[in-house]
Design a protein that fits this description.
Helix content: under 10%
Structural class: mainly beta
Number of helices: 0
Distance between the termini: 10 Å
Radius of gyration: 12 Å
Strand content: 35-45%
Length: 63
């Protein structure tokens, strides 16, 4: 999943995912302990940050 963190904001904590960074365009990837998510399966993750929340629709893609 990818999203753009607004200028002046930052991601400070992420769980059940690995973030590619803390500002700007950030991509979240599955972590090893979640293993592979099977076809039709789901997983959840979360993040916390400072500043203004991202707006718009996050983009998800199978990897």
């Amino acid at each position: 999943m990818s999203l753009t963190v607004p200028s002046g904001s930052a991601i400070t904590n992420t769980w059940s995912a690995q973030a590619s960074g803390t500002t700007g365009a950030v991509t979240f990837r599955n972590v090893d302990y979640n293993r592979q998510v099977g076809a039709g399966g789901t997983t959840e993750f979360g993040f916390q940050g400072t500043g203004t929340a991202p707006s718009g629709t996050p983009v998800c893609a199978a990897g």
